[in-house]
Amino acid sequence: MIKKVLVANRGEIAVRIMRSCREMGIRTVGVFSDADRKAMHVLYADEAYHIGPSPSAESYLNMDRILEVAKQSKADAIHPGYGFLSENAVFSEKCQKAGIKFIGPGPYAISQMGDKITARKTMIAAGVPVVPGTESAIISEAEAIKTVKEIGLPVMVKASAGGGGKGMRLVKKEADIKSSIRAARSEAKSAFGDDAVYIEKYIESPHHIEFQILADQHGNVIHLFERECSVQRRHQKIIEETPSPILTPAIRDEMGKAAVAAAKAVDYEGAGTIEFIVDNNLNYYFLEMNTRLQVEHPITERVVGVDLVKEQIHIASGEKLSYKQEELKQNGHAIECRVYAEDAANNFMPAPGKVTHIAIPYGVGVRVDGYIYEGFEIPIYYDPLIAKLIVWGRDRKDAIERTIRALQEFKITGVKNSLNFLENIMTAPDFVKGNYTTHFIDENIKHLMGEEPCQDDCEDMVIITAFLEYLYRLRKASPKEMTALKNNWKDYSRIRSVLKL
Amino acid sequence: MIKKVLVANRGEIAVRIMRSCREMGIRTVGVFSDADRKAMHVLYADEAYHIGPSPSAESYLNMDRILEVAKQSKADAIHPGYGFLSENAVFSEKCQKAGIKFIGPGPYAISQMGDKITARKTMIAAGVPVVPGTESAIISEAEAIKTVKEIGLPVMVKASAGGGGKGMRLVKKEADIKSSIRAARSEAKSAFGDDAVYIEKYIESPHHIEFQILADQHGNVIHLFERECSVQRRHQKIIEETPSPILTPAIRDEMGKAAVAAAKAVDYEGAGTIEFIVDNNLNYYFLEMNTRLQVEHPITERVVGVDLVKEQIHIASGEKLSYKQEELKQNGHAIECRVYAEDAANNFMPAPGKVTHIAIPYGVGVRVDGYIYEGFEIPIYYDPLIAKLIVWGRDRKDAIERTIRALQEFKITGVKNSLNFLENIMTAPDFVKGNYTTHFIDENIKHLMGEEPCQDDCEDMVIITAFLEYLYRLRKASPKEMTALKNNWKDYSRIRSVLKL
Amino acid sequence: MSFEVKINNRTAHVELLQWEGSFVNIKVDGKEYKLDFEKVNQGIFSILHDNNSYNIELIPGDNVKKYTVNTYKNTYEAEIIDAEAKYRAARLKGVDEDAENTVVAPIPGKVVKIPVSIGDSVEAGQTLVIFSAMKMESEFKAKKDGVVKEIRVNEGDTVEAKKVMVVVE
Amino acid sequence: MSFEVKINNRTAHVELLQWEGSFVNIKVDGKEYKLDFEKVNQGIFSILHDNNSYNIELIPGDNVKKYTVNTYKNTYEAEIIDAEAKYRAARLKGVDEDAENTVVAPIPGKVVKIPVSIGDSVEAGQTLVIFSAMKMESEFKAKKDGVVKEIRVNEGDTVEAKKVMVVVE
């Protein structure tokens, strides 16, 4: 049994992992860069080790230093979280060699799924539908043109080693094929050191739907249903929900089976996600597999009733899956809102800075996973995700109504953030109808950027409050001028949110 | 449809009710006494009205004033919460007459269940098991002695109008029967103005198990399973859990049916709770019905997946129940810990005062319902319940482990509170085994009063921190003496909890 | 006692008539209010107006005249405009006009690439700096045609917010 | 620089050897520690000692020498004992001895009933005051035999914490 876990990550996911460890009686080891000495995961961990300068390449991506800490702290296992080293086959292998359990799949599964062309081939062999396109890397441009004619325009040219929207080109006209391939190749070469590219049919109105799977070391694989992740900005998810508003029970069942087949095809171990692209006719195609925990895993936890981090640890300990497929059910509806430190009005530009004030929502069906605190300086080196709001409701309508209530109670001051933008998504007619694709944000941008005006006299109340507070301060500074005004305020030593509890 | 609700209550339950109203798009009206101008429910409400001086008799129990506010604010309905006017048949009737919907049962059901002897008779007629005893009030002492001989000692003498442990006498010896009846009568007379008493068999090792029911205006009644409430101090619950660790599926089903029959017998409407007393052989007996929402309703919400306040409002609007009995299921396990402002070491003496600091637990499976905030002065006039921690887990073991984690993250400073006591309950072997009765606290008092010592060097760290902070302040006060010490602390203007998010 | 208060794009004239205990009588743009105004805690206020309840959080800004104000649903930036602030605003007016000649780091971050050199002629829309913060790369472009006059940062530099990186003339 | 610090029932001797930046070298009851000691925020501290992480919250008490201290699992009352505090403790020693002669309200509440009168002889254990706060009634009893000398409150009074209600001699 695992007794001590090193969490090779930071931010909300590090804290979230440590919480489940605490509950299991497992000691936690945190690691931190220069910028993170006062970060929440350091404060929450039982032990904490400095691993290097602020840039991730010199700290959270420094495999040898992290393994050194694992040995020094006598950790049995390393949980990589998401991002950083979580999908790094080399790191998984190094852990194996060092005799420290990597909580996640072995290097084989990671590399099979990390290379897009290999993944496509593996999926085709396993009978999982993939987007029509080339099966291997493009060798000649002539051959490419032939393929494009077979599958029909538009198509996507994609880097095999790609990710995060890099090394991708959309081709709409035949005349652009050659130049697009060349551009994608050169971008892939400089970004990933590998210029292999392939061609896929472009799905016009895509839904991005993923299935959560769990696989033990004994060949048992189950799926925990889907997450609908089509609300994206800058190719990054911002809202996820489960169940998907568009799937039918029959398609859900089929896709779940395909997800299990996909995981089995690479001898998968641990928690993983099969991402599908789904068109308006509910044709679904394998897109990629994320061989790690997802940011949006809590909505599955809420609706299916499984603590995914605990299951990861049980699996890593060699235990058999303790859930059977037929026992699992989706109960109600859950929505996750990602709160980013960013400026929606300025192309979602990240907005680091010092958090001066937080008010957190509570009550039935509300969960907040975060890592910031008042006075915390959000570093410039890492992801701008600062909190996740996970809301459960009886059904989709109930979940949306509760999410709006929770977002209105939620306040973060000091840094620009996406709270207002998220609330606008919840009220956008296309979202309410459940009728949206990955183009949702572009298509609804006007509604999403709006700000609902304050009702009744509340704008005047804002003005009055600022005015009176200023007056009060003036009076303290020069009491003589202000003796005409009497008031009985006490001087409190601290600012507090009344919405705190 | 109800558009505006007056919440005739305060504290956590008022805020909790308003949250569900907000989600449903219903405007909320708060009422407050002198002591509560700055209370959370006033800050959270859309509208707020002053209703009188601090003592509840002059404010929260002032029926006419509350009805006046309901008319003035044009509220359609009044939600009474729990306590105060929630089980007052007169108030339910006054609302009816004023044309304002009382969210709860009509006066008939409240008074049928409010009088214990009447309730016993009604239950017997409905075929619901009651504790063996007299069916009507005791008229002659001779008859009482005869009854006692039939059902066997020990017995309880109870006031028909009773509640809260008043007007009750335990009789163990035949010689004490007469004097006990006289004492109970005189106490009942002075406490309730009614000296009717009756006799019940005393259950030696009782479990207190209650069933949640929902009944609409159209005669449909369902139950939402049980809550085990045997952990009590001063006859008041402090921990509740669901499912009960002792019930079998067959007994659960039987009791659920009895609970539904009990509600039907009084033409019940709304949310209510049938309390049963259960002996070690799982014989169960009707104890009483609470004709309102319970403090511990959130554990049912979590495990059954129903927002009980929303259902109350739907029912009050005349809608039919939207759940069918066979659709409902218990998913996982939930535990509620009641956080009281009280001193466990001093016979649970209430401890009002000013809250100086709060750190709240977050993460998977954790819900906190409360109403205090930093700087809030807990008034002396009302109940010492300040927050409820509701924790969900996959099973009982998981829920206990998570509750311990959450209780450790939970800090309230400035007022004495039950957090440490609650944590000790979670680690008490009898509780962990699920093997406990209402005598649990007495039988485990030594363990429950203990304080786990700080591990490793952490006590020294406490000493060092206090020492260095004091030194730092001294240095600021008289910088010259302290120039030998250099440090680079910044002067923060506010105290913040790092465990905040 | 009266001042102007600016919130978002509105500038309101506020006049205090009476403030005693928690009772406030005040005019905003000529509309008179009688309020029960309570300070709940530092920065937290509760106002009852005709029994409507407003819960307002006030977070101090860069200076004593600026506040971020949260209501239940909205967030506002408020600023007190007194004589001094008016004077300052008038003086500053000229200065900002040069803004379109400079590329300023809007947030702290890292200079990834500067694809121009001093003396280069650039067109409006041409990329002057590639900048990275929190895993996102942004391109900062010239706002008008001109010649690169100054480059005040180096590739690879970590810069603070508001740092002027490139000046075009 | 050294003081005594009292937490719960332990009084520890603390000696500071070095404090520079976040580095602290300090002795507690003779045990030497080298710590990475960071103030995270007002009242919030993070200590790393041999890579063990301690997150400590310090809440000021009634006076500058008293603190409530929270660790992850425990809560302590800490007090700095310097020369002045020692002197005060010594002086106060005599005063508290009379405590058993008085009935003091431990918390704010309401006097429900005073079932004795001035001049009554009372026995240890006899109820002197019935007191109510937050829906709970408590009976305060005589700690020793004696005669009721003073009754300083009336039935129905609302009293503050620490109010002396009845004196027995």
Description:
The complex is a heterotetramer, with 2 copies of chain A (501 residues) and 2 copies of chain C (169 residues). Chain A is α+β, with helices and mostly antiparallel strands and 501 residues long. Chain A folds into 5 domains: 4-103, 3-Layer(aba) Sandwich (Rossmann fold), CATH 3.40.50.20; 132-201, 2-Layer Sandwich (Dna Ligase, domain 1), CATH 3.30.1490; 204-331, 2-Layer Sandwich (D-amino Acid Aminotransferase, Chain A, domain 1), CATH 3.30.470; 341-452, D-amino Acid Aminotransferase, Chain A, domain 1 (2-Layer Sandwich), CATH 3.30.470; 456-498. Chain A has 17 helices and 22 strands. In chain A, the strands form 6 sheets. Chain A has an 8-stranded antiparallel beta sheet with strand order 13-12-9-10-11-14-21-19, sandwiched between helices. In chain A, strands 3-2-1-4-5 form a 5-stranded parallel beta sheet. In chain A, strand 9 (207-215) and strand 10 form a beta hairpin. Chain A is globular and about 80 Å long. Chain A starts with a strand and ends in a 24-residue tail after the last helix. Chain C is mainly beta and 169 residues long. Chain C is elongated and about 65 Å long. Chain C has an 8-stranded antiparallel β-barrel. In chain C, strands 9-16-14-11 form a 4-stranded antiparallel beta sheet, with no helix packed on it. The model of chain C has no long low-confidence stretch (mean pLDDT 86). Chain C has 2 domains: 2-83, 2-Layer Sandwich (Glycoprotein, Type 4 Pilin); 95-168, Beta Barrel (OB fold (Dihydrolipoamide Acetyltransferase, E2P)). Chain C starts with a strand and ends with a strand. Chains in contact: A-B, A-C, A-D, B-C, B-D. The interface between A and C is large, with 63 and 63 residues.
Helix-strand blueprint:
The complex is a heterotetramer, with 2 copies of chain A (501 residues) and 2 copies of chain C (169 residues).
Chain A: E1 4-7, H1 11-24, E2 27-33, H2 40-44, E3 47-52, H3 63-72, E4 77-79, H4 89-98, E5 101-102, H5 107-114, H6 116-126, H7 141-151, E6 155-163, E7 166-171, H8 177-192, E8 197-201, E9 207-215, E10 221-233, E11 236-242, H9 249-265, E12 270-278, E13 284-290, H10 297-305, H11 308-316, E14 333-340, E15 342-343, E16 349-350, E17 353-354, E18 357-359, E19 366-370, E20 377-378, E21 385-393, H12 396-409, E22 411-413, H13 419-427, H14 429-433, H15 440-443, H16 445-449, H17 458-477
Parallel strand pairs in A: 1-2, 1-4, 2-3, 4-5
Antiparallel strand pairs in A: 6-7, 6-8, 9-10, 9-12, 10-11, 11-14, 12-13, 14-21, 15-16, 17-20, 18-22, 19-21
Helix pairs in contact in A: 4-5, 12-13
Chain C: E1 2-7, E2 10-20, E3 23-28, E4 31-41, E5 44-49, E6 52-60, E7 66-70, E8 75-81, H1 83-92, E9 102-104, E10 109-113, E11 121-122, E12 127-133, E13 136-141, E14 146-151, E15 158-159, E16 164-168
Antiparallel strand pairs in C: 1-2, 1-8, 2-3, 3-4, 4-5, 5-6, 6-7, 7-8, 9-16, 10-12, 10-15, 11-14, 12-13, 14-16
